Amino acid sequence: MENTRNVTLIFLILTFFSSSAISGTINISSVVDNIQGNISRDIRIVGGNTASGNQFPHAAALFLFLTTGESFCGGSIIHANYIITAAHCLDDLIRIDVQAGTLNIFQGTPQYRATVMQRDVRQHPQYDKETLRNDIGLIYAMQPIRFSSGLQPIALPARHLVSSSFIGQIPFVIGWGRFSDSRHVLSDALQYVRLPIVNDQSCTSVYNQLFPFFNSGTNICASGSNGRSTCNGDSGGSMSITLSGRNTLIGIVSYGSATCEGGYPVVMTRVSAYLDWISNNSVLRL
Ligand SMILES: *[C@@H]1O[C@H](CO)[C@@H](O)[C@H](O)[C@H]1NC(C)=O
Ligand SMILES: *[C@@H]1O[C@H](CO)[C@@H](O)[C@H](O)[C@H]1NC(C)=O
Ligand SMILES: CC(=O)N[C@H]1CO[C@H](CO)[C@@H](O)[C@@H]1O
Fold first, then answer.
1. Burial of 53 (0-12, 13-18, 19+ CB in 10 A)
2. Which residues form the signal peptide (predicted)?
3. Ligand 3 within 6 A of 1 CB?
């Protein structure tokens, strides 16, 4: 019973992330209406703050046009021609309208806008949609991103960090993915929240009861307690910490519970496990 419920939670959050968008408004009401019983409809931001200034100049907003409708994800600029995101954001893709260099995705003036077609994105070849293993993807931005103080790439982890668990770190997780009870819309303003990295057991106990979704080598487990969660960190968005004075991308938002306030942990893709794949599929040499 408990097992079934936990597994259900995982797939619900995926459904939300792939629900249709209408010019910036994600309409998840039809999805919510399908939810039976125990899953809370009370899905809203808790514990987040609005980003300011040039706090997260690597943040990219991905307006996704899919064969199944419209959707939205976050991404991170890692090079003038590359944006990294979650592979599941790129399922059924036709094209992406990318915006970067703005904190506000509807009211703002993005410094960068481009349309990227499906042929210019790459999902990890071992990405598995059912289990969300290897949930990482690259977007090739043919039109180069011109950097400024508000538009900068984020550093990737150094090789020597490949074996680091990062447990105890309290990274920033960002996103525009705001849902409210009454209006199921994205947040106009970029939101951030700090989620402590906890031990793998915290995630395996929730997500691995029926099937081993969480994989220690390629995922990072973040706390969803104390009223903070990834409702504000849309799929594909960054989890970052400061290393050697540079903001460094260590995780990509992958999945979690549909109940943001349920205190369930959140699962990230462990970026340091994919340095070879990123090197092999971009001009970066990591
Ligand atoms: C959202 O979906 C509901 C149910 O399908 C529909 O009634 C409503 O008009 C939709 N809202 C928008 C903004 O499209
Ligand atoms: C990267 O490329 C090398 C050389 O072609 C290959 O041996 C290796 O398996 C690749 N690794 C990944 C993760 O793609
Ligand atoms: C739809 C569903 O799962 N409903 C369950 C909600 O929780 C109560 C109490 O635990 C169960 O009796 C319902 O079956």
1. exposed
2. 1-23
3. no
